[in-house]
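Quick one: C-alpha coordinates for this chain, please?
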Amino acid sequence: MTGSQVMMQMGGAFLLGALLAAAATYAWLSRRVKSEHQRVLHVEQSRQQVLEQVAQARRQIEQLQRESHELRLAIRPAPRQAPAPVQDAAEAARLYAESLLKPPSPTDKPQAFKDTVVLRRGPD
Protein backbone atom coordinates (compact mmCIF):
# COMPACT_ATOMS: atom_id res chain seq x y z
CA MET A 1 0.00 0.00 0.00
CA THR A 2 1.18 3.35 -0.87
CA GLY A 3 0.99 6.46 1.24
CA SER A 4 -1.85 7.91 -0.75
CA GLN A 5 -3.94 4.76 -0.33
CA VAL A 6 -3.32 4.82 3.43
CA MET A 7 -4.29 8.48 3.52
CA MET A 8 -7.45 7.70 1.54
CA GLN A 9 -8.37 4.89 3.93
CA MET A 10 -7.75 7.13 6.95
CA GLY A 11 -9.78 9.93 5.41
CA GLY A 12 -12.61 7.52 4.56
CA ALA A 13 -12.54 6.08 8.09
CA PHE A 14 -12.60 9.60 9.52
CA LEU A 15 -15.53 10.58 7.30
CA LEU A 16 -17.38 7.37 8.19
CA GLY A 17 -16.74 7.98 11.92
CA ALA A 18 -17.85 11.61 11.56
CA LEU A 19 -21.05 10.52 9.76
CA LEU A 20 -21.81 7.92 12.45
CA ALA A 21 -21.14 10.46 15.21
CA ALA A 22 -23.33 13.02 13.44
CA ALA A 23 -26.12 10.46 13.01
CA ALA A 24 -25.89 9.44 16.70
CA THR A 25 -25.86 13.10 17.79
CA TYR A 26 -28.82 13.87 15.51
CA ALA A 27 -30.81 10.93 16.91
CA TRP A 28 -30.01 11.92 20.50
CA LEU A 29 -30.83 15.58 19.91
CA SER A 30 -34.06 14.79 18.04
CA ARG A 31 -35.26 12.64 20.98
CA ARG A 32 -34.29 15.41 23.35
CA VAL A 33 -36.07 18.07 21.28
CA LYS A 34 -39.16 15.84 21.00
CA SER A 35 -39.31 15.34 24.79
CA GLU A 36 -38.83 19.08 25.38
CA HIS A 37 -41.56 19.84 22.85
CA GLN A 38 -43.93 17.47 24.66
CA ARG A 39 -43.04 19.13 27.95
CA VAL A 40 -43.76 22.57 26.47
CA LEU A 41 -47.11 21.32 25.15
CA HIS A 42 -47.96 19.90 28.58
CA VAL A 43 -47.07 23.20 30.27
CA GLU A 44 -49.14 25.13 27.73
CA GLN A 45 -52.16 22.84 28.30
CA SER A 46 -51.76 23.27 32.06
CA ARG A 47 -51.57 27.03 31.64
CA GLN A 48 -54.74 27.03 29.52
CA GLN A 49 -56.54 24.90 32.11
CA VAL A 50 -55.48 27.26 34.92
CA LEU A 51 -56.65 30.26 32.88
CA GLU A 52 -60.05 28.58 32.40
CA GLN A 53 -60.28 27.88 36.12
CA VAL A 54 -59.39 31.50 36.92
CA ALA A 55 -62.05 32.74 34.50
CA GLN A 56 -64.61 30.40 36.05
CA ALA A 57 -63.66 31.54 39.56
CA ARG A 58 -64.04 35.17 38.49
CA ARG A 59 -67.49 34.45 37.08
CA GLN A 60 -68.47 32.75 40.34
CA ILE A 61 -67.16 35.70 42.35
CA GLU A 62 -69.11 38.13 40.20
CA GLN A 63 -72.26 36.02 40.62
CA LEU A 64 -71.80 35.91 44.39
CA GLN A 65 -71.25 39.66 44.49
CA ARG A 66 -74.46 40.21 42.49
CA GLU A 67 -76.41 37.93 44.82
CA SER A 68 -74.92 39.64 47.87
CA HIS A 69 -75.91 43.03 46.47
CA GLU A 70 -79.45 41.78 45.78
CA LEU A 71 -79.70 40.46 49.34
CA ARG A 72 -78.51 43.78 50.73
CA LEU A 73 -81.19 45.54 48.73
CA ALA A 74 -83.84 43.03 49.83
CA ILE A 75 -82.98 43.33 53.51
CA ARG A 76 -83.32 46.97 54.28
CA PRO A 77 -82.08 48.07 57.70
CA ALA A 78 -84.76 48.55 60.32
CA PRO A 79 -85.72 52.18 60.78
CA ARG A 80 -83.96 53.76 63.69
CA GLN A 81 -85.98 54.74 66.69
CA ALA A 82 -86.40 58.41 67.38
CA PRO A 83 -83.96 59.65 69.96
CA ALA A 84 -85.30 60.01 73.47
CA PRO A 85 -86.54 63.51 74.21
CA VAL A 86 -84.00 65.60 76.03
CA GLN A 87 -84.96 66.10 79.66
CA ASP A 88 -84.34 69.22 81.55
CA ALA A 89 -81.58 68.76 84.14
CA ALA A 90 -83.77 70.20 86.91
CA GLU A 91 -86.62 67.83 86.01
CA ALA A 92 -84.25 64.86 86.03
CA ALA A 93 -82.91 65.85 89.45
CA ARG A 94 -86.48 66.20 90.81
CA LEU A 95 -87.45 62.71 89.54
CA TYR A 96 -84.31 61.22 91.04
CA ALA A 97 -84.99 62.82 94.42
CA GLU A 98 -88.57 61.55 94.37
CA SER A 99 -87.41 58.03 93.62
CA LEU A 100 -85.12 58.18 96.65
CA LEU A 101 -87.94 59.35 98.91
CA LYS A 102 -90.34 56.58 97.90
CA PRO A 103 -90.30 53.61 100.25
CA PRO A 104 -88.83 50.46 98.72
CA SER A 105 -91.39 48.02 97.41
CA PRO A 106 -91.84 44.96 99.58
CA THR A 107 -90.05 41.92 98.23
CA ASP A 108 -90.93 38.30 98.82
CA LYS A 109 -88.78 36.52 101.33
CA PRO A 110 -86.49 34.02 99.68
CA GLN A 111 -87.46 30.42 100.23
CA ALA A 112 -84.82 28.03 101.44
CA PHE A 113 -86.34 25.12 99.56
CA LYS A 114 -88.59 25.24 96.56
CA ASP A 115 -91.81 23.27 96.52
CA THR A 116 -91.34 19.64 95.66
CA VAL A 117 -92.87 18.56 92.37
CA VAL A 118 -93.73 14.91 91.91
CA LEU A 119 -92.98 13.67 88.45
CA ARG A 120 -95.08 10.98 86.82
CA ARG A 121 -93.41 7.75 86.02
CA GLY A 122 -93.89 5.90 82.79
CA PRO A 123 -96.26 2.92 82.55
CA ASP A 124 -94.90 0.05 84.68
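Helices lie at 3-74, 89-101.
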